[in-house]
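User: what does the whole thing look like in 3D?
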Amino acid sequence: MKRRDFVAGTLAASLAVPALAQAYPDKPVRIVVPNPPGGSADYIARFFQTPLQRVLGQPLAVSNVVGGGTSIGNRQVRDAAPDGHTVLAIHQALLTAATLKVMDFGPEAFAQVAQVATEYVTVVVNSKAPYQTLPAFLAAAKAGDLKAGVQIGAINHFLFLSLGDATGTKFRYVNTGGGGPTRTALAGGHVDCAFLTVNEAKPLVDSGDLKIVAIFAPQRLASWPNLATAREQGTDLLLNLNYWWWMPKATPRARVDRFADALRIAMNDPEVVQKYAEFNMSAVFLKGAELEAEIARQYEAMKKLAERNNVTAT
Amino acid sequence: MDLVQGFLHLVTGGPLLLLLVGTFLGIVVGALPGLTGGALLALSLPFTYRMSSVDGVILMTSMYVGGISGGLITATLMRIPGEPSAVVTTLDGFPMARGGRPGRALGLGISASLIGGALSWVALVTLAPAMARLALVFGPFENFALVLMALVLIAALSQGSVVKGLLSGLFGMLVSYPGIDETSGQMRLTFGFEEMVGGFSYLAVILGAFAISQVLADAMHARQKFERLDPSVKGIFLSPKDYLGQAFNIVRSSVIGVWIGILPGVGASISSIVAYSVAKNMSKTPEKFGTGFEDGIVAAETANNANTGGALIPMITLGIPGSPAASILLAGLLMHNVQPGPTLFTNSPEVVSALMATHLASHIVMFAMMVAGCMMIARLMYVQRAYVLPIIIVLCVIGALAENGRMFDVWTMIGFGVVGFLLELAAVPLGPFVIGLILAPLAETQLRAGLMGSNGSLMPLVERPVALLFLLVSVLMFVWPLWRDFLRRRQTPLPA
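Assistant: Here's the predicted 3D structure for the full assembly of 810 residues, as structure tokens:
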């Protein structure tokens, strides 16, 4: 394994100089999504597939490399030839996997390309629950042990840890899994609360089963104006998913930048703009030092949270 | 609901073409060992993204149905399941085909597929809206008890030796454990190998145990020619008498198929295994199963197609796919921002009616295509196996590699090919192995989720009526075959 990586690395390095002179990309680009189809990390890659193709002039293929809490796909990109033709699309799941030590590397093992979107999340409860506002919900959480439906070690778990940390509340965690099954468990009254994205919650809010207590966004959504933010309910906390793109560490800077700029252009493509609106995502673009600082900050915060709450492997 | 409109839409130009192409591709991929309907669905995702949500649903649903159905062809004619869901079709389909009646064996399978699919369609159309409500009652304890009902069949499934069956089931469970422990997010049984963090891919393991192991077994007799077979496809159409004789089997296997289909994440392979073993258990002539018995083919092929309708129910009503293939269909919907749930029926009625209409229509198309192609397909029996085996290995490697693009999955497949071959030699049944492999993780996560919610108390398992009911049925199903064998042994006087 290791030796082959080394050979691949030197080969790529020796080719790097002439490669730089060539136009990039000069062959199809492979986008690795380390989550199964249907997750938000997957569709963000697919939103960008065609618009990016138009900008880069090369076909893009999205492949889902699933398993090991995203670590299998992450590792595949880390070990890929650093020529800019293999790109990873994943949100904070890369950080949670590294924090839980299911991978022996973290964000530092990659060239960090860009952030293209932010999706603010909501705390959702059963519509029959006695607490329907954020203050009442937090009071209930302080008083008794509310069952939170999460996937242990995944982002929806860390979102609760962040909330608990900021508000001095504790929850009892029940491993209900990702958005779909968690939302069902919540509607059936098997857990008391969950973090869901706006679009995950919407069908069951419309049907009268669930109630969104707060969205952890800086201001109300234009598409859903009567959804109260946490901030206006007295909890100044922003919680979100950040959609990031990554490349192998040794990828030439020029190529990383070229791809980042292509992403920025594609973000203005009407197709992407429309999808962002449909999915209630905000266009937030970061690259370079700014992006690296943001990722490092989140990673540090996550590691501290994990340590304080005893979720890290011993 | 405008189901009529859904059907009318299907007979207009573009949608009709999608229906035909989707079903056809599904059958072809389903029949080829290694390539599965799930892989085809995943490959078609980028195309459906460019289509309207209705067209995407039509294409993907027909691929789904075609894929599940095509698997019976290679299972019957070569004893190699083209699709994991056709694993038990090999047990009776192949002996019958080899015994000179390939047409009859295919005909039974094809007709059973159509009827199983159609009955599950009835369940889909009538139960789906109600199920959305009912399913909410199901918490972790209910789900655990429900999975347990299928898991205990390991004992029932053990042809010959109960000990060997249990051994095989436990081995399947063991194989499912390495990787990330769902409930703690931590690695287990990876022995420090990075690649093991993802665990063994089910697809790779099943491909290995059933396809590669069969290739190995065949390779030992590659020079041996098949005896001349009856080339007619007589009996491909079943008579009303045939249907009448199988009526109870068909209904029972359909119900099992739908039930297993509704369980989250459990594919069609389990439903055919369960239906087959229940049919065998309840039969007056269990010894005929495995020798080319019609009931066996019918049970297996009814159930795996009935699974499709079942798997779609929680997918459209709750957003929880009932099978791995349905999860890719779900992904196709989500990309169009069609959010499943109780409101889907009012928000996107056109998607619901397209899905339901296609589910039935593609079963009919599948039936027509497969019956028409039957003569041609049956000739596969005469092909020199020596030419076919390398192609099958190549297809399996492609299939295993395509799933996640990992060589590790290919090694897994080859490794389990050898393991499956050795188990077959030792007469250890592989059915319990698949049940253990797929159901144990589900039972584990559900039970542990329940315990996390109940503060470690097992009491809800007997306090919650639905859970208690399933638990009792599980106990009955576990004890019954053992008890029956015990009685039988008492009745046969011991040799003095």
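In plain terms: Strands of chain B lie at 179-180, 187-188. Chain B has 21 helices and two strands.
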